[in-house]
Each structure stands twice: as C-alpha cells, then as structure tokens.
Design goal:
Strand order of the largest sheet: 2-1-3-4-5
Structural class: alpha/beta
CATH architecture: 3-Layer(aba) Sandwich
Distance between the termini: 22 Å
Shape: globular
CATH class: Alpha Beta
CATH topology: Rossmann fold
C-alpha cells in the first residue's frame, strides 16, 4: 500500500506528455478533468496521473509495477505510443511492450482501457497503417476496451492544440477528457457493480 493511499478505487493513467498535460496546468490535464467528472457524478474513485513527458511504450513498461502498486487499482488506462511513433521506433517493439503492460495488469485482475494513437505520416503509409493496427490487434487479443484514437476531434485542429501542433491546449484537453469518459464511465460502472 502506498503512503498516499486513500483506500478509494483507483484509475491509473499510464501515459506520456499527452496525459501529463504538457504545457497545461495540472488541473487542465485530461486525467484531472476525468477526476472532476467522477466527482460531479458522485463516484468515490480517484484518478492517478502516471503520465511522464517523453515516455515511450518501453518507458511505460518499466514503470508498470509502480503504476499498479497505487492501492486499490481497478482500471489501467494505457495511453502510450505517441513517442514511439514520433521517433519511428519499430512497431513490433511497441506491440511487445504494450502487450506486456496489458498482461501485467490482467494478472492483477485490473481492467485495461487501451487508448489508440496515430503515427505521424512522415514514416510512410505502411508504418502508419501497421502502427494503428497494433492497438486493434492487442484489444482483440487481450479482450480489452479500445478507445481507437485518444486525440479524436483534437489532432490537426490548430484551435485545440498548443503552438507545437502536437499537444492539446486547455480546450483540446476538455475534448480528450470527454472522449475518454464516454468509454471509461461504463467500465467504472461495471467495476463498481462487480
């Protein structure tokens, strides 16, 4: 049990700068907004933001034991892969790392929400397609919930992103939180009922 364990059921967000809220206040990052939604709707759950800027799927795997050791973790939101894609890292390595993260959570009977990511187009169409397919394949193989694209309705919209064109601004972060919540809420309800 971690020293700051409240005893409440937890959702751990294992991610990179998109989850950490790069360029935003902590309260504006989508995990904090998910906490707001849980609070407003009367869920006694706690969101743990385990997002670290620059993390790849390999970095996330290295932190998995820590992430799953945050008390009563019921749901692991895996939001990794963006940095693998930006760096053009081998898709097979990303798949292996994400598979190990999912399997590690499932061993502890923790539900997994896998957030899909898109690779930038500069590595060619073959890379882009195989990158996208990893998330679908893993969701099918491990029977986990898939959110097809974390940045749905936000990516490529200048008004919803910081000047770098990669990280959501405060408005974009609200849309990401809504997108995640649509998939997460039924998982929370199911976990609470079990």
């Amino acid at each position: 049990m971690s020293p700051n364990d409240s005893g409440r059921p937890k959702i751990v967000v294992l991610g990179d700068s998109l989850s950490a809220g790069y360029g935003l206040l902590e309260l504006q990052a989508y995990p904090a907004l998910l906490q707001d939604k849980l609070n407003v709707e009367g869920y006694g759950w706690e969101v743990v933001n385990a997002g670290i800027s620059g993390d790849t799927s390999a970095g996330g795997l290295q932190r998995l034991d820590w992430a799953l050791n945050q008390g009563d973790v019921r749901i692991l939101l895996v939001a990794l892969g963006a940095n693998d894609g930006l760096r053009g890292l081998p898709v097979s390595e990303m798949k292996k790392n994400l598979a190990a993260i999912i399997a590690g959570a499932q061993e502890k009977r923790i539900s997994v929400l896998l957030a899909g990511m898109e690779a930038p187009p500069n590595f060619g169409p073959e890379y882009t397609v195989s990158f996208r397919q990893v998330f679908r394949d893993l969701a099918r193989q491990y029977k986990v919930t898939l959110l097809p694209f974390l940045l749905d309705k936000v990516a490529g919209e200048p008004s919803l992103n910081l000047p770098d064109g990669i990280h959501p601004n405060a408005d974009g972060s609200h849309i990401v939180a809504d997108t995640v919540w649509n998939v997460l809420k039924p998982m929370v309800d199911a976990a609470a009922a079990s």
